[in-house]
Amino acid sequence: MRYMSDGRNIQWFPGHMAKTMRLIDENMRLADVIIYVLDARIPDTCLNPAFAKAIGVKPVLYLLNKADLADPAASLAWERRLRPAAALSVTATMSKFKHAILKEITALAADKIARRREKGLNYTPKTMVIGIPNTGKSTVINSLAGARRAAVGDRPGVTRGKQWVRVEDKIDLLDMPGALPTKFESQLSARHAAYVGGINDTVTDASELACALLAELAVLAPDAVAGRYGVTPCGSPLQDLERIAAALGCIKLGAVPDSDRAAAAFIDDFRKGKLGRITLERPY
Ligand SMILES: Nc1nc2c(ncn2[C@@H]2O[C@H](COP(=O)(O)OP(=O)(O)O)[C@@H](O)[C@H]2O)c(=O)[nH]1
Ligand SMILES: [Mg+2]
Q1: Average pLDDT estimate for 59-74
Q2: In terms of residue numbers, what domain contains 244?
Q3: Same structural domain, 55 and 168
């Protein structure tokens, strides 16, 4: 277990992540280019300071992934914010982004390829794919490799070991397990990671999370909840959740709204974009 929650607070459990960071550190020297996969809905939370330290001065391509679930204007603003580093908004589950990603990697490795070529050698640049759990690292690799080469899951922690994948004899990709910050900058940031499935659901409280997300959406996307459930936020997320439960037919014995079940359904809807394309963290 990586993170613990006492209901209100998501707390750090250091052992496992330290091991993942060590794996990333150890393999960093092999990499010519880093693909840093961010969830386009929460880029700030995805920018783990430990990664910046591990990357050092290596060239980085930021992928604002799951762009299909994020607000397009916010993703563009994030691309601008990340420059002069290379940054692309992508939907890794769609093959149409493959060409643009390969082009960026080749450009970032151009110096190294040229140096080898001067010596008459062919060179396949090595690219390491990193990011917090569940941002789509393995999906990016599979999309580039055109096959199910890296294990994908809709929960954190699916990628464990070390897996190299070669793409069209042009680049080698190394998948890495996701690493969360050793300490979240804030509980808000920890909750954001949880909303998008970056923290295991078994260590968070669904109703607690859902109420916090309802409160955030009331400000960020005031029509989203009404649009999906016909429930106009009343100022009390707990009451809203009960009304969502009623709207979804989540009822317990004794005709009581089942808030826990509604909370899980609501969070799932958010994760799948059914509440709209919502970016929780803006670059400004
Ligand atoms: N909607 C959407 N889902 C994605 C995208 N990329 C990955 N996913 C899904 O996100 C989940 C996590 O993907 P995975 O590649 O295993 O993430 P990893 O933990 O970073 O390796 C899976 O259910 C993927 O199908 C995307 O661009 N859009
Ligand atoms: Mg993975």
Answers
A1: 98
A2: 205-271
A3: yes
Range 86-115 average pLDDT: 96
Distance CA 78, CA 80 (A): 5
C-alpha 12/C-alpha 249 separation (Å) is 36
> What residues have their beta carbon closer than 5 A to ion ligand 2?
137-138, 159
Q: Give CA–CA dist 180/49, Å, rounded.
A: 10
Tell me which amino acid residue 263 is.
Answer: A
Residue 158 CA to ligand 2 centre (angstroms): 5
Number of domains in the chain: 2
Q: Is 230 in the pocket of ligand 1 (CB under 6 A)?
A: no
**Cα 136 to averaged position of ligand 1 atoms, centre (Å):** 4
**With a 6 A CB cut-off, is 59 part of the ligand 1 pocket?**
no
Q: Is 280 helix (H, G, I), strand (E, B) or coil?
A: coil
Please determine, for residue 264, whether its predicted confidence score (pLDDT) is greater than 50.
yes
Mean pLDDT for all residues in the chain? 90
SS3 72: helix
| Cα 281 to Cα 272: distance, rounded to the nearest angstrom | 17
Q: What does the alpha-carbon distance between residue 230 and residue 243 come to, in Å, rounded to a whole number?
A: 9
Q: Which ligand is nearest to the CA of 152?
A: 1
154 Cβ inside 6 Å of ligand 1: yes
Closest CA to 180 of 188, 170, 190: 190
Sign of torsion, CA 77 38 61 104?
negative
Ligand 1 proximity of 65 Cβ (cutoff 6 Å): yes
Ligand with smallest separation from the Cα of 64: 1
Structure tokens at 245: 């439960």
- Would you state the structure tokens that stand for residue 63, as one six-digit string? 């992928």
Are 166 and 51 part of one and the same domain? yes
